[in-house]
Amino acid sequence: MKTIGSSTAGPDARKTPVFDPATGEQTAEVILATEADVDAAVTRARQAARQWADTSLTARTKIMFSFRELADRHREDLAALITAEHGKVLEDARGEVARGLEVVDFACGMPHLLKGEFSEDVSTGVDASSSRQPLGVVAGITPFNFPVMVPMWMYPVAIAAGNAFVLKPSERDPSASDFIAGLWHEAGLPDGVFTVVHGDSVAVNALLDHPDVSAISFVGSTPVARHVFERATASGKRCQALGGAKNHAVVMPDADLESTADALIAAGFGSAGERCMAISAVVAVGGGDELVDLLKEKALALVTGPGTDPASDMGPLITKVHRDRVAGYVASAQNDGAEVVVDGRDVEVPAGAGGFFLGPCLVDQVTTDMSVYQDEIFGPVLSVLRVDTLDDAIELVNANPYGNGTAIFTRDGAAARRFRRDVQVGMVGINVAIPVPMAYYSFGGWKQSLFGDSHIHGMEGVRFNTRLKSVTTRWPATPAEAGSASLNFPSGDKR
Ligand code: NAD
Question: Is the CB of 429 under 6 A from ligand 1?
Answer without folding.
Answer: no
